[in-house]
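G., the chain you wanted modeled:
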Amino acid sequence: MCLLSDAAVISVWPTLKKYLTPGKTLYFSHGFAITWNDRTGVVPAKDIDVIMVAPKGSGTSLRTMFLEGRGLNSSYAVYQDATGKALDKTLALGIGIGSGYMFETTFVREATSDLTGERGSLMGGIQGLLSAQYEVLRENGHSPSEAFNETVEELTQSLMPLFAKNGMDWMYANCSTTAQRGALDWMGPFHDAIKPVVQKLYASVKSGKEAQISIDSNSQPDYREKLEKELKALRESEMWRTAVTVRQLRPENN
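Predicted structure as tokens:
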């Protein structure tokens, strides 16, 4: 089972490869190394099974939900079936790690959609949107607490649970009529402004450019130091310093 980071897979592949004797199975939790093997050098021999079960979330979430008896959704794929039993092994592993449900994909589709999502709505895009709205509110005289509550706290504590459970239309139907009207009127301009960015992002992922950026940066000996510096700047921004105070005011923390 290869659960290493993408950069680490590249560094250990020469060692790992010699143990992959005929009939063995190589398992991945992400399609990166295989999809961009012209850049990673990860080219398995044809006489082994190469499979993937990719949980759709962080390792922390996977473990937490497993312990809670809940499942994290996973995609699965077979890249090579040398033994004729690769699919059976894949599904068994998916069940074993506690997948809530599994959907079929390919290594390429998983890798490209995953990198797009991480850089887009799941992480990069959401931080960009939140910080932009917070800054505009602050620039117009709103307090840090008000700007944070109207930008982040209400989203994560009130609205996300609603549309996670029943969908965006249900969430719209259960908010004020003023919020409904504004959301319906403004979702179009946001869509039109953001879609070209997503198209540019997807093209960068599909071309392998994003993979190469990750390989180059994550392979640097001072990667961790540089990463911590970037994360420290994010953590110490006014919006996320305000978050610390606001979280302490939540009823469950008092």
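Strands lie at 25-28, 49-55, 72-80, 99-104.

Shout if anything looks off.
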